[in-house]
Amino acid sequence: MAVAVLAAKQSRDPHTQVGACIVSSENRIVGIGYNKMPNDCTKAFPWDKEAASRLDTKYPYISHAELNAFVNKTVVDVRGCRIYVTLFPCNECAKIIIQSGIHEVIYLLDKYPDKDETRAAKRLFENTGIHCRKFKPKNEKDPVDFYSVFGANQEQSN
Ligand SMILES: O=c1ccn([C@H]2C[C@H](O)[C@@H](COP(=O)(O)O)O2)c(=O)[nH]1
């Protein structure tokens, strides 16, 4: 999860930085990603959350952290791997996780539990038997500030 947090810090999304790290059954990191605009689109698209038209917001354009971790993978097959994500995956990312054969999702924060995208993702994971668990730092002295990507007090709210 520390690697996913570090990846999230690369994101230019001013509101929510997300990191993802795919790990093999032999505990090797095989893919890292963060939420970003697609290559060569960095300057052309807005980071706004709201606008008169959804087409003028960031949402239709962002390439999500999980997709980028999958695209960046260093192995042919990620079947049997687990994925560490700083944010509970949306339904589109859930589909990528399922289709790629990843069998476990470890998330840091479930920031949007009431969004349809999150609820659909949970249904997808439940139906496919993909195990999801919230990441728990091993102890308070852990040198990584896992929640720094979300700002203060996010840990308590979930
Ligand atoms: O599974 C997911 C869901 C979302 N993201 C990214 C997409 C956006 O850049 C942010 C969410 O922005 P908000 O301003 O918090 O709505 O998270 C992702 O990478 N993976």
From TrEMBL:
The active site is at E66. The keyword Metal-binding applies. It catalyses: dCMP + H2O + H(+) = dUMP + NH4(+); 5-hydroxymethyl-dCMP + H2O + H(+) = 5-hydroxymethyl-dUMP + NH4(+). It comes from the Eukaryota. PROSITE patterns: CYT_DCMP_DEAMINASES_2 (PS51747). SUPFAM superfamilies: Cytidine deaminase-like (SSF53927). Signal peptide: none annotated. Zn(2+) binds at H64, C90, C93. Pfam families: dCMP_cyt_deam_1. Its EC number is 3.5.4.12. One of its GO terms (biological process) is pyrimidine nucleotide metabolic process. Residues 1-125 form the CMP/dCMP-type deaminase domain. Its cofactor is Zn(2+). One of its GO terms (molecular function) is dCMP deaminase activity. InterPro entries: CMP_dCMP_dom, Cytidine_deaminase-like, dCMP_deaminase, dCMP_deaminase-rel, Deoxycytidylate_deaminase_dom. Keywords: Hydrolase, Metal-binding, Nucleotide biosynthesis, Zinc. Belongs to the cytidine and deoxycytidylate deaminase family. This is Deoxycytidylate deaminase.
